[in-house]
Each structure stands twice: as C-alpha cells, then as structure tokens.
Amino acid sequence: MVGRLGAKHNAPPLERAYTTSKKGGLMLKQLSGVHTFVVGNVAEALYLTIQSLKESGIEVETRNGSAKEFPMPVAITYNKPLERVIYYPERDANPVFHFMESLWMLNGNNDLQSIEYFNKRMRDFSDDGEWLHGAYGHRWRRHFVIDQLQIIIRRLKSIPNDRRSVLTMWDPHADLLEHNARKDLPCNTHVYFTIRNKKLHMTVCNRSNDLIWGCCGANAVHMSYLQEYVATMVGVEVGTYTQFTQNLHAYNSVLKTLVDMQPDYDSYDARGFEYQAPLINDKDLFDYELQAFMDGSTNRDFRNNIFTEVALPMFWLWEAWKSKNHMECMTAISQIQSDDWRLACREWIDRRSDKLK
Question: Domain-by-domain residue ranges, the chain?
Fold first, then answer.
C-alpha cells in the first residue's frame, strides 16, 4: 500500500513468499499484485501515482504514442472525495469543463453539442458528430431504458446492508464488438455502492484509464459528484471513493510536461477554504432544476445553490472567456461562491491573461 509516508507491505506467509532452490535452500519468490494507494484527495493521488508510475511503470507503444503503464491493476481510495479540484499549474486542468461535464452526466445527456461548447476536443470522440456513444450519464439514466440511479437510491433507502446496488455503464450488445471502429466506449464500466455507519462508500471499476486526464482529472470530479448525488438523495454522508483500474497509464509526452510538479497533498486545508457549495439543497427540485439549467435557463430562481453559486457564474465566465473579455471574466469569477471552484477558475484564467483584452 502506498501513501504519503511511502510504501507499506504486510509480510506474506512464509510458504507464499519463498520457494525451494535446486540446492535445497529457500529462495525468495517474485510476487506481483495490485498497486494500492490510500490518499486524502485527488491532488495527493495525482502526485503519488505519477511518482510511482515513473519508478515501476513499463514502456508500451499505443495507437496514441508511447506511454507508461502500471504492470498490474491499480486501486486508489479517496478518503476526502469531495476535495475534487486540483490546482497544479503544470496540469492546467480546465475547471469549467470538469464541472459542466459533471452536470451533463448527472442529467443523463449524451449529445455532443452541449458539452462541446466547453471542450472542442469532445468532437474527436463522436462517431457521427452528434452523439457520444459511451456517455456515462446517458448510461446511468437512459441507455438501458430504466433510470438506474433512481432504482439504486430507492434500494439503498429501503434495504439494509444492500450489496446489490450496481450501476452499469458497459453494454455488451453495444460495446463488445469484433472491431475497434468506435471512437467512444465507456472506460468506467461499473460502480458499486454500499452504506456503512451512515456513509455511502463507492467503488468505480475501470477497464483502461489515462492517469492524468481521466483517473486523477475529470473522473475524480464527475464520479465524486455522482457519489454526492446518491448520498444526498439517500440521506447519508459521503464516505470513501475507490477507483479500481485494470490498465492505468500516462503518455510520455504528457508526463514530460509535469516534471516540475511539486506535491500538493492537503490542497484544501492549505488554502484555508471556508465554503464549498453542496451539490443539492432541495432534493425534490434538484433533477428538475438540473434539466432546466441544461436546457439553457439562466434567469430562474433556483432553489439549489449549486446553480446560482457555481454553475451560472461559471457559464458566464466561459462566455466571457470565449469573447476574450478580461473584465467580464473577473466579474463572473467573483460571483462563484464556492471557494474551491472560484480559485481554480481564477488561476486558470490568470494563466491565460495574455490572451484576454
């Protein structure tokens, strides 16, 4: 197990750790197993996993260029999953896209148009220029005809010690093909939910993940919002979030840009954040208001503060950024009430100040 204090290993039983040599003596076996990281938040996970990948990763050639991958599956457990925003300038994460993609998923969307507005590269993953085949939120709420989230919420509220609340994203009829022609297949395939001591713990299973852009980037944001959504609707606290990845990798071209990155483990405490906007204030109205926001409503009186305190000012920020208006960008950022997102947006814009007028 790897944490900020280094590696910790439980000594295996003697008969498993050793074998008999030809001369009759004991010889240490070469054991392999899952790489495990137990961390506070995603900022800590990103730094530690990159260092570990540099040390133990193996070189591979992929259709997207040379990369390093962990030789075995990787499990990362977040003890503070709601500390979801990263501030590494070298990583230069786009906070607006990460946040808006989370809402897009929770609403069950799979249209390209509404998410491409915040990230033009999303078009690269569309087969027809209109839809995204593997969109997680659509798989959660519409693809399988049923709304899986609502069923899971009802199960967790009514069945003690439930162990059958499985959220499915992988559809073998649509995804398990005998060719690789599709551009977008779900990388995250299943999510498991369980409640212990009035906390919702979540495990996400992933077949293949980019460490920097996916696992410790966008995934940490939208999956933690999924966990917060389910926990709040059920009426329990958010517990741990474990990400299990079969193939965790990073491309060498991207790793080279992060060589100067310094650890930022206690990113939220170190910055003295006092207020973090909750996802939901009014459970009865949230889904309705989410749909209204995704449909373009910007002047309604939202009961859930996430829309007035984060989503709307972020949307105004993005419009100001696209028009390259520095003053309007700063005005929009000042209206973001959640400390974590406000700082992330300000730093992201500051790194682009030379492009603003």
Answer: 2-12+32-272, 274-357
Q: Is 329 a catalytic residue?
A: no
CATH architecture for residues 2-12+32-272: 2-Layer Sandwich (3.30)
Q: Which of 187, 216, 329, 345 is an active site residue?
A: 187
- In whole angstroms, what is the distance from residue 137 CA to residue 104 CA? 7
H or E, element range at 227: helix 219-234
Task: Please report the pLDDT score of residue 357 as a whole number.
Answer: 82
pTM: 0.92
The three-state DSSP-derived secondary structure of 158-225 is HCCCCCCCEEECCCHHHHCCCCCCCCCCCCEEEEEEEEECCEEEEEEEECCEEHHHHHHHHHHHHHHH
Q: Spell out where 29-177 has E strands.
A: 35-39, 58-62, 65-69, 74-78, 166-168
- The residue with tokens 């060589």 is 259
| Residue 320 identity | A
CA distances from 141 to 109, 145, 193, 352 (A): 9, 8, 16, 37
H or E element in which residue 288 lies: helix 283-294
The C-alpha angle 149, 340, 345, rounded to 5 degrees, equals 100
Euclidean distance between CA atoms 48 and 58, whole angstroms: 17
Mean pLDDT of the chain: 93
pLDDT single digits (tens) 13-43: 545 555 666 666 666 566 789 999 999 999 9
